[in-house]
């Protein structure tokens, strides 16, 4: 698909958001266009009234007549302004609503994309694309509906007036000027589009670099690489600087050509006017009227060029944003997917194999069943595929072969929403919203009462700490939870999951950031709240899973051992070796 066709499609994709099914919106569009046309028609009569003022003064009309014409002149100017502003007032809701709906649709679609997309995406570039795209929509609406269309109408009306009043050559001169001006503007603006796209890409790169560096400022500090980060950011800025310079220079070339074309058109019309006056075919009032028309036309012509440039740039930005909607969703609900019905909460993996890519197989023929109210723990070395099991249970990825069922229902045949509402997780990597502590805990259940939030906090042994803070639960958590320690973030995440009260619990190294004392308290709480729930524990510290009903040991994606803590120690295999090694490390 060509780039021009893609940009045209971007405009067509916008139309349903504008011409919606809402009668009020459609009425606003029609009414605003009527106001626009009325304003332009009245504007055509402004120079005519001005002509009669001049001619009236030359012919010594009565003062009362002159004053009447002057009042009419002022009235037409006021009416033009009134109808123009009415147009803006009436249409403002249409434009802002369309922008909001597009942004909302893109936002929702981003959340429907797969885990793979969100892991590999660059947040800064993505947010910049959406931001520029929504601003592009505003620009397209502003300039296409309220500049190009009315300017075209005004040029046609003025040409017709001059043709009717002073001959065809006046109209021909204006039309030729307009055609050459628009043609030149389109040609140069099309050439400039590549510079605008290059500038957008380099802007995304620089923004990604800045965000990535600032989010990882602690790592930068650890390695003393502030200067290195500045050098890398400067390199990205230099690339942007070069593309921005090309854009600015090409704009100057465009402006020079436009000014030359307008000036030649003005000179031609003035020569025609001077010749008509010499032949007594025009009065001084006619001359001033033509001059007024010329100036009146020069403004929309210059706006036409600017509007064209802005629309072209806006369509590039809209193109980038709408391309996001073309990204396929890797994991989708099956046709006629049903709600997951939790009966007992029994989880079963049956010969499950999975690979993130063909070159990277992770799990091989994994099978296990977690009975209702029972606990299964997964242990193994880093990279063995432990956390992948929890991601597959949430259906962040689809498996390559085998089946995952909950109470006999294949998770690929139920809605993702109902599946994920039934499972609660305390993940290894704690990421909190840049909001209050209360918001972060209540996020587990938006309908929970204040007392329920407090109870969950107490069960997670975080209430006492929160109470010591000056603002308590209203304390703001920094971006990604950076104002809290790892243990504090982990306990908040635990409280959030407790508040959710799911049928199935997943603890992915849920106490890895806690001290020994707090770990024991949390373990006791987790054991209590999950006593009658199906529980999957992904653990590094084996001391946290000794009470698990079953433990499976992963190595390179295969289950190499399984049993409870006692039987695995008696087996004297990989698990026993890992257990005694950790015990020795804790003693030392």
UniProtKB/TrEMBL annotation:
Domain ABC transporter as annotated: residue spans: 347-581
Localization terms from the record: Cell membrane
Topology term for the membrane: Multi-pass membrane protein
Record-linked Gene3D superfamilies: ABC transporter type 1, transmembrane domain, P-loop containing nucleotide triphosphate hydrolases
Coiled-coil ranges per UniProt: none
Main location: membrane
Biological-process GO terms, alphabetical: intracellular iron ion homeostasis
Pfam family of the protein (one): ABC_tran
CDD domains found in the cross-reference section: ABC_6TM_ATM1_ABCB7, ABCC_ATM1_transporter
Gene Ontology cellular component list: plasma membrane
GO MF assignments: ABC-type transporter activity; ATP binding; ATP hydrolysis activity
PROSITE patterns: ABC_TM1F (PS50929), ABC_TRANSPORTER_2 (PS50893)
Keyword terms, alphabetized: ATP-binding, Membrane, Nucleotide-binding, Transmembrane, Transmembrane helix, Transport
Residue ranges annotated for the ABC transmembrane type-1 domain, each copy included: 30-313
Transmembrane segments: 29-54, 60-80, 140-162, 168-191, 260-278, 290-308
UniProt xrefs under SMART domains: AAA
Function summary: Part of an ABC transporter complex. Transmembrane domains (TMD) form a pore in the inner membrane and the ATP-binding domain (NBD) is responsible for energy generation.
Family, similarity comment: Belongs to the ABC transporter superfamily.
Protein name as it appears in the record: Metal ABC transporter permease
Lineage of the organism: Bacteria, Pseudomonadati, Pseudomonadota, Alphaproteobacteria, Rickettsiales
């Amino acid at each position: 698909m060509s780039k021009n066709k893609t940009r045209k499609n971007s405009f067509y994709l916008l139309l349903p958001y504008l011409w919606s099914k809402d009668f009020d919106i459609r009425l606003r569009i029609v009414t605003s266009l009527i106001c626009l046309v009325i304003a332009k028609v009245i504007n055509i009569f402004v120079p005519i009234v001005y002509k009669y003022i001049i001619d009236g003064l030359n012919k010594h009309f009565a003062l009362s007549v002159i004053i009447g014409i002057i009042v009419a002149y002022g009235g037409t100017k006021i009416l033009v302004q009134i109808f123009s502003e009415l147009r803006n007032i009436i249409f403002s809701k249409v434009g802002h609503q369309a922008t909001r709906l597009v942004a909302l649709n893109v936002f929702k679609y981003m959340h429907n994309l797969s885990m793979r997309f969100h892991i590999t995406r660059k947040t800064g570039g993505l947010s910049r694309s959406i931001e520029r795209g929504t601003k592009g929509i505003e620009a397209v609406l502003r300039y296409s509906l309220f500049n190009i269309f009315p300017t075209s109408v005004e040029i046609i009306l003025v040409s017709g007036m001059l043709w009717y009043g002073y001959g065809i050559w006046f109209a021909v001169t204006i039309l030729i000027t307009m055609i050459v001006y628009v043609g030149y503007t389109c040609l140069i603006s099309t050439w400039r589009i590549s510079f605008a796209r290059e500038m957008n890409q380099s802007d995304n790169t620089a923004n990604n670099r800045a965000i990535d560096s600032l989010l990882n400022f602690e790592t930068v500090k650890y390695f003393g690489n502030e200067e290195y980060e500045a050098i890398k950011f400067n390199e990205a800025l230099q690339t942007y600087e070069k593309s921005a310079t090309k854009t600015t220079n090409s704009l100057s070339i465009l402006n020079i050509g436009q000014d030359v074309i307008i000036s030649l058109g003005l000179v031609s019309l003035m020569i025609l006017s001077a010749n008509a006056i010499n032949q007594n075919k025009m009065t001084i009032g006619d001359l001033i009227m033509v001059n007024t028309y010329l100036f009146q036309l020069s403004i929309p012509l210059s706006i036409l060029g600017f509007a064209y440039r802005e629309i072209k740039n806006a369509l590039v930005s809209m193109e980038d944003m709408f391309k996001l909607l073309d990204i396929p969703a890797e994991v989708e609900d099956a046709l006629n997917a049903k709600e997951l019905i939790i009966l007992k909460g029994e989880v079963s993996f049956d010969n499950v194999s999975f690979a993130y890519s063909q070159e990277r197989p992770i799990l091989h023929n994994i099978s296990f069943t977690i009975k209702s109210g029972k606990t299964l723990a997964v242990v193994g070395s880093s990279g063995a595929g432990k956390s992948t099991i929890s991601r597959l249970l949430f259906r962040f990825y689809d498996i390559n072969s085998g089946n995952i069922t909950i109470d006999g229902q294949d998770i690929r045949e139920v809605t993702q929403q109902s599946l994920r509402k039934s499972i609660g997780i305390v993940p290894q990597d704690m990421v909190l919203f840049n909001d209050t502590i209360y918001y972060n805990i209540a996020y587990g259940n938006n309908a929970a009462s204040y007392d329920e939030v407090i109870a969950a906090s107490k069960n997670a042994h975080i209430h006492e700490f929160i109470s010591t803070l000056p603002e308590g639960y209203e304390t703001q958590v920094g971006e990604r939870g950076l104002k809290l320690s790892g243990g504090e973030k982990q306990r908040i995440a635990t409280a959030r999951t407790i508040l959710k009260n799911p049928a199935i619990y997943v603890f992915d190294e849920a106490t890895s950031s806690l001290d020994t004392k707090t770990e024991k308290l949390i373990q006791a709480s987790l054991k209590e709240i999950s006593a009658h729930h199906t529980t999957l524990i992904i653990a590094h510290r084996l001391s946290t899973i000794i009470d698990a009903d079953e433990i499976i040991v992963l190595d390179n994606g295969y289950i190499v051992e399984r049993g409870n803590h006692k039987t695995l120690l008696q087996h004297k295999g990989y698990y026993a070796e890992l257990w005694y090694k950790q015990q020795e490390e804790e003693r030392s």
